[in-house]
Amino acid sequence: MWPAEFDYTRPSSVAEALQLLSDNEDAKLLAGGHSLLPAMKLRLNEAPLLIDISRIEGLGSISNNGSLKIGALCTHAEIAASADVQSSCSALATATGMVGDQQVRNWGTLGGNVAHADPASDPPTVLVAFDANINIEGASGSRSVAASDFFMDLFTVDLEPGEIITSIDIPDHPHEGCAYVKMPHPASRYAVVGICVVLHRDGGSCSGAHVAVGGATVRAMRSPGAEAALRGSSLDDAALDAAAAALKDDIANDLIGDMSFPEAYRQEMAGVYLKRAVKAAGG
Amino acid sequence: MAVVGKAVKRKEDPRLITGEARYLEDIKLPGMTHIAILRSPHAHANIVSINSERAAAVPGVIGVFTGQDFMDVNPLPCPWPAGGVDNNLNTPRALEVEKVTHVGAGVAVVVAEDRATAQDAVELVDVEWEVLPAVTDAEEATFDGAPQLHENAPNNVCMEWDCGDQSGTDAALGSSDVVVKQRLRNQRLIPTPMETRGCIAQHEAVNGEYTIWMTSQAPHVHRLLFTAFIFGVPENKVRVISPQIGGGFGAKIFMYPEYVLTTALSKKVGRPVKWVETRSENYIATTHGRDHVTDVEVGANRDGTITGLKVRTYANLGGTLSTVAPGIPTTLYGRMLSGAYKLPNIYCHVTGVYTNTGMVDAYRGAGRPEATYVVERAVDLVASELGMDPVEVRRKNFVPADSFPYEPSGNLLNGLSYDSGNYDKALDMALEMTGYEDFRAEQAAARAEGRYLGIGLSTYIEICGIAPSAWMFGEGWGAALWESANVRMHITGDVVVTSGSQSHGQGHETSIAQLVADELGVSMDQVHVQHSDTLGTPFGYGTYGSRSTAVGGVAVWRSLQRIKEKARAIAAHEFEANVDDVEYVVNDEGVGVVQVKGSPDQSKVVGEFMGIATSAAGGWDLPGDMEPFLDETAYYDPPDCTYPFGTHICIVEVDAETGNVGIKRYIAVDDVGKVINPMIVDGQVHGGIAQGVAQALWEGAQYDENGQLVSGSMMDYAIPRADLLPSFELGRTETPSPNNPLGVKGAGETGTIAATPAVVNAVVDALSHLNVRHIDMPLTPSRVWETIQSRSNGGNS
Ligand SMILES: Cc1cc2nc3c(=O)[nH]c(=O)nc-3n(C[C@H](O)[C@H](O)[C@H](O)COP(=O)(O)OP(=O)(O)OC[C@H]3O[C@@H](n4cnc5c(N)ncnc54)[C@H](O)[C@@H]3O)c2cc1C
Questions:
Q1: Is B274 found in the same domain as B294?
Q2: Which residues are bridge partners to B673 per DSSP?
Q3: Residue B619 — very low, low, confident or very high, per pLDDT cuts 50/70/90?
Q4: Do the domain assignments include residue A43?
Q5: Is the pTM of this model over 0.90?
Q6: How many domains is chain A built from?
């Protein structure tokens, strides 16, 4: 549990951080440190220089001007406790409130979480379901990437070495119910499977749904099949069964598993948790 | 005011809670160096060559050493081979020289000015390996063609051992109404104490003396092993100090290569050397527990009478033997297989096997949880086969309360016998607390709604106060198991107790002080219990096997009797009375006085300044040739062990859709003999239940086919968490042990022994309507779910 030697610097602005990144090829950004430092201590990861962005001003606030903007440095605990998040995207408050334990939630940041892209993470599933955009600054300016495109594979995202995630936008998405449910791994508490559902209702029937899955899959991803099965239904048992079956099909080629929770089991549980998510979202 | 039996607050807690307690990691010595160990990444490999040039060149590195540098140090001893049979012994060296047989075996070490430098440099040690095929399963390792680990152990067998009556058991099974067979896996566990291991060694070249601070549950045993076995030096050359210990669960009893390495290095480099284990090292290099594959056959008659129990076990011992590895799955397992039952025929055959895995040794319960699991599962299998209530099968076969001392059949206990018990009473209390009949109704109603509720019992017994030295010697143990204690009453009346036990969370400073306070009539604040340092404490075999009160506590009690005798003699002299007329009494205020019988005006307080304590310590006017000071040492070697028992009941709900097991209630009635401090006993029971439940549901060390520990971190290996457990409902019956004057039995391991089968029985009960008879641990959601799926599709298991 002793990291290899590294240098440490703490810039006070995004511009300064970008400059440091471009000057130091293998440098790494340090936010909450709760993914990076364990990996460095296990010597699974090394960096000659850590650029600590955790005290850069302006990256740690949550605002809601039509759409919800969450600074990259907001911690899981801050997001879970935010009234803005609870009112316009309660599933994200739920998901961040389920991350690890209290210490992890007090240190880990949303920016670090999505940059790291552990497939068992919770927040990415919600971000994908809500069509969130990841706002990125780089030497050549800023860009914004849709969450569905941002998460590419296991620990792989659309982020260049010299870039910094500054915030995450969750577009205004009026809905009649949303939920995030997960089966936690008994050791790490990461998601064995996590499902986010956003429901639109028109009287008794479902006029549209967003369904995203994580934990069971290499990346957080949407399930077009499940969404189609729910759309226009009255969210009855038959519709839920059809949605679960479609979800299982959609993820069949993207499953992950281990000795305790094999792929086939996670695939089945995705279906079970989809039904639970719909119920939790008021369906 | 008597304190024994009261929930007195623990004397050790203020320093633990405020963070003032000093653990090994807190100790820093002037000139101290640090080490990092290069450990094998392979489960089975020959060491072709080691090149340490690059590592040695790193600034701050003092030296790089390999196994060749320690050929003058003996391999680690294995002082407990299985009794009465041949053992093919293979133990580790400080660093391995020719080959490694498990991932994590040390092959080189870097000594440096600081820990980080040592770690940086150790990554630059180049080892050329010849990787060999590996085998990790104990039974498979015995098959022809399996990779061979040690030349002296054909088919990787360390020993074959048996106990009980083979022909009688075969005959009984042959003539029983039913025989149920089941394979049971008792999976490997990782003890995971909060504090990992560590060692600091200092060598004084002038006189050749070592001082060794180490995370030890048994400092005197460690000194014994260092001196007589490893370095071949007399006892006075080694002082072992075990500072505050953050848990051990058995894993800190043993001698380990790192302790030997650190100590040998302190002489080589002429400076103190410190080693503190990382959690990753803890998982691969500290001993694991359990890991049995067992085939059980149990015979019964239609009325529920069990006629015979036949047990065939492969015990995985790891790549090399830890200190008492062979003794655990033999003496402490096979001899316990009668459980709480009067079984007419029992036979057990154990094969101890080497595999390419980490060392396996005693882990909380040590052999007894494995035995209890077999017995308690077997009883449930009989109940389900006969369609009987598991409670009834238990009652039918219990050792009746009027048959103690009870000697299990077939000389299973090799001459010992259960001391005392009333198994029905504990069962009745637990059933009453549970509302058993009501639960059965609730279960039926829930099933009708598709909810799977289940209840599981474990009417366990265990063996504590592990001792009789002569008996243990016959069981292969190469030393004794008595305990000793010294009690001194100082001139102020304060009492200092020193003992060879070693609390590592059990609260000895409190419970022993309670004994002393009541016996001598002094306050708790006046009693100081000291252990931890071989210099200044009398010899003792340490703390494990729930023996510190049942054996060590009795040694204290004996010393107290001698102190009281002497106090009476001094008082008689002062009162000019006959000693037979002087009595030592503890008055209503809890103050110990010596007084002339029948004339209380002639009395004197013992434990205060100017009391008898001062008369004795001053020594100005003592009778005859009496030596000054109230200072007595006693030894105690009990005639037999103690046998706690009880009933644990677990109620679970299995999520039919996911297979997840939720514990709804947990009821435990334990009889640990006489209770000194109920709060401490509750704490021991709570922690034990948590670990026992965890084995049933979550924990399990997993090796892949190459012998890599897949569950190598706490991100993968699931230790129990408070939020996964209900509030435990505890009850107690109290049947004193006749085997010691305190009537105590032992309370450190009941939870891990009882809880595991209670939980598994509950889950199987929840799924019994699906024809489920058994599921192997850990009962992870996926395993339970797969069982439900296969059964719902009409299979059997
Ligand atoms: C015990 C434990 C349990 C956990 N359980 C869960 C769980 O249940 N669910 C869950 O979702 N997560 C869990 N986590 C992970 C946790 O959410 C992490 O905190 C988070 O993934 C990383 O955030 P961080 O701020 O700590 O990032 P850091 O560790 O500081 O950085 C992680 C990576 O992201 C990069 N990075 C950080 N910030 C930025 C940025 N703004 N722009 C670009 N790159 C950046 C870093 O360079 C690094 O490569 C757990 C972690 C631990 C230690």
A1: no
A2: B744
A3: very high
A4: yes
A5: yes
A6: 3
Evaluate whether residue B3 is within a structural domain: no
List the beta strands (DSSP E) in chain A: 7-9, 28-30, 49-52, 62-65, 67-71, 133-138, 141-146, 151-153, 156-157, 164-170, 177-184, 191-202, 205-214, 221-222
Closest by Cβ to B718, choosing from A1, A2, A187 = A187
Q: Is the ipTM of this structure higher than 0.90?
A: yes
The residue count of chain A comes to: 283
Q: Do B425 and B493 belong to one domain? A: no
Task: Give the pLDDT confidence of B348-381 residue by residue, as tens digits.
Answer: 999 999 999 999 999 999 999 999 999 999 999 9
The closest residue, in CA terms, to atom 36 on ligand 1 is A112
Going by C-alpha positions, the residue among B107, B38, B40 that lies closest to residue B67 is B107
Ligand 1 contact, A189 CB (< 6 A): yes
| Same-domain status, A156 and A66 | yes
Mean pLDDT of chain A: 96
Q: What is the mean pLDDT of residues B491-513?
A: 92
Place of tokens 């644990």: B648
**Spatial distance between the Cα atoms of B78 and B256, rounded to a whole number of angstroms:** 11
Domain boundary among A170, A189, A206: A170
- Is residue A2, in this structure, part of any structural domain at all? no
Domain count, chain B: 3
B189, B275, B658: best mutation site toward chain A, by most A Cβ within 10 Å? B658
Q: Supply B686's token pair.
A: 């709570």
Name the pLDDT band for B791 (thresholds 50, 70, 90): confident
CB B196 within 8 A of CB B281: yes
- Atom nearest to A29 CA in ligand 1: 47
The rounded distance, in Å, linking the Cα atoms of B532 and B242 is 5
* Structural contact between residues B433 and B368, judged by C-beta atoms closer than 8 angstroms: no
pLDDT value of residue A259? 87
CB contact under 8 A, A259 and B717: no
pLDDT band (50, 70, 90) for residue A112: very high
Co-location of B441 and B558 in the same domain:
no
C-beta A99 within 6 A of ligand 1: yes
> Of B604, B636, B668, which residue constitutes the final position of a domain?
B636
Q: Per the domain annotation, does B80 fall within a domain?
A: yes
pLDDT of residue B793: 67
Task: Determine, yes or no, domain membership for A57.
Answer: no
The residue range of the domain holding B649 is 289-467+640-792
- Give me the mean pLDDT over the B599-615 stretch: 94
Give the residue from B714, B782, B785 with the most A CB atoms within 10 Å of its CB, the best one to mutate.
Answer: B782
Q: Which of A135, A170, A205 is the last residue of a domain?
A: A170
CB neighbour class for B766 (10 Å; exposed up to 12, middle 13-18, buried from 19): buried
Higher per-residue pLDDT: B42 or A2: B42
Taking the C-alpha atoms of residue B405 and residue B715, their distance in angstroms, rounded to an integer, is 48
What pLDDT is attached to residue B795? 53
Domain that holds residue A13: 7-52
Å from CA of A73 to ligand 1 middle:
11
DSSP 8-class letter at B23: B
Which chain A residues are Cβ-neighbours of B714 within 8 angstroms?
187-188
**A102, part of any domain:** yes
Q: pLDDT over 90 for what percent of chain A?
A: 93
| Same-domain pairing of B761 and B683 | yes
A1 with B279: Cβ contact below 8 A: yes
Task: Report whether pLDDT(B794) > 60.
Answer: no
- Looking at the fold, whether A164 and A108 belong to one and the same domain comes out as yes
